Amino acid sequence: MSEAGTAKRPLLLYVNTPFCNSKCHFCDWVVKVPIGDLRLGPESEGRRGHLDALKVQIAEQAPALVERYRPELMYWGGGTASILSPAEIETLYGALADAFPMAGIVESTIESSPESLTLDKLRLLREIGFNRISIGVQSFRDDRLRMIGRAHSASMAETSIELARQAGFDNINIDLIVGFPDQGLDEVEQMMRHAAQLPVNHYSVYAYRASEGTVLRRRLDRANAKTDLANQLEAYQLASDILTEHGFPEYTFAYFGNPICQADLAYYQMKLDWIGFGSGAFSVIDGRMKGFRAGKLRDYIAHPTEFDYDLPLSSGAQAGSLIGFALTTPEGVDAEVFRQRTGITLAEALELPEVTAYLDQLCQYGELITDSAGIRFAREDIAKVYISMNWHEQPAEDAEPAPAGPVPVEIGLPAAAPA
Asked: Could you report the per-residue pLDDT of 338-355, keeping only the tens digit for each?
């Protein structure tokens, strides 16, 4: 057999940590997670049980993966991955290193929150191979941070960036949010100009989404208040202009800077398979989407190798999700990549009712470009399309859907849940 015939495919290792120090008021991911589980400490039964379950899942699923894949990217997210104690970090990384060849990983990212970072922990992360860190800053104003329920202060945010630099991280992302209902453009401009002066090379800028079930959404509903789409679009454009002016161009929707985040683009552009470990994680393997439902910590602990769902990427909603992810990039949906990933042609997918309905929504805000290579939006339309789509309510997910019921991954842009 030729070398090409035996070549292993690249793989992204994703590890989910379903714990946080606070239940942020804007985050739709934590809506599904009971606060008693979300804020478990390292010595709690739930935290210890989750770590043990992770080790079981990794050990049992890795051998079949290693036969066909080579790990190329690693991403620890959540929740808040940096909430893990040094002992938990070492144990978890050790389980991965025992099961997978790690030498070929070129980008290794961990999501973090400022209050959970210390110099010793950051040095440990660098020592075991993390070369990129994403810090959930969100704002540099203490009043804004309190309003959105963050556990850190503005000074902690700046200190965490400096500590990361001291520990040897030279690839640092910070998350920021614009477009809150009461946020004027002056606040956005002040935040972005300050952010652009920091020792940071990458920025994720999210437009606030008033997701149902969040504290901020309930406050808006009680006050009969509404967010202002025009203001959100203007705030995002202002943030984009300032970052571009300072040498941090937008390379895909919401992401600015260099080097680009390879894990994010692999996810959005469907470029490679990934395996998701942990409660709330999902995988894309062999043309199927498999995973564990968010907020079901004890179910995962009891059955860490039994996915809660296992669905073909060719099904209507899953194909729609992949198309929605890819259209956030300037390259859009590559027809050949889509066929390879899903087993159906892009033309066939575009005839599926779920995909047709979703694209009809998207095309209210931008013109879809279609040619033999695939489909895409003009770069200047992408932000307008997806920020506008934040205003479309997603149908509620059943607590315990039957196998033939609603699929677990919502169509559209993945809900941002910055750490």
From this structure: 999 999 999 999 999 999
Segment 164-204, tens digit of pLDDT: 999 999 999 999 999 998 899 999 999 999 999 999 999 99
* Mean pLDDT of all residues in 36-47: 94
What's the CA gap between 47 and 212, in Å, rounded?
A: 28
Stated as kind and residue range, the H or E segment containing 264 is: helix 262-268
CB contact at 8 A, 349 and 319: yes
CA distances 220 to 146, 228, 298, Å, are 16, 12, 33
Counting beta carbons within 10 angstroms of the beta carbon of residue 267, is it exposed (0 to 12), middle (13 to 18) or buried (19 or more)? buried
pTM score > 0.85 for this model? yes
Question: What would the mean pLDDT of 270-281 be, rounded to a whole number?
Answer: 94
Radius of gyration of the chain (CA): 21
90-121 residue pLDDT tens? 999 999 999 999 999 999 999 999 999 999 99
Rounded to whole angstroms, the Cα distance separating 358 from 362 reads: 6
pLDDT of residue 258: 96
Which pLDDT value is given to residue 392?
63
Cα–Cα distance, 41 to 51 (Å, whole number): 12
Choose which CATH entry (3.20.20.70, 3.10.450.320, 3.20.20.80, 2.60.40.10) describes domain 8-266.
3.20.20.70
How crowded is residue 63: how many other Cβ atoms within 10 Å of its Cβ? Answer: 10
> What whole-number distance in Å separates Cα of residue 14 and Cα of residue 274?
7
- Three-class DSSP category at 17: strand
Where in the chain are the domains?
8-266, 313-394+410-414
Distances (CA, A) of 100 to 5, 15, 130, 359, 382: 21, 13, 16, 39, 37
DSSP result, 96-165: HHHHS--TT--EEEEEE-GGG--HHHHHHHHHTT--EEEEEEE-S-HHHHHHTT-SS-HHHHHHHHHHHH
| Residue whose entry in the numeric block shows the structure tokens 């973090």 | 112
DSSP state of 280: T
**Mean pLDDT of the residues in the chain:** 90
CB 235 within 8 A of CB 207: yes
Decide if 56 contacts 305 (C-beta within 8 A). yes
Tokens 């002016």 -> residue: 245
Retrieve residue 265's tokens.
Answer: 């683009």
Distance CA 379, CA 382 (A): 6
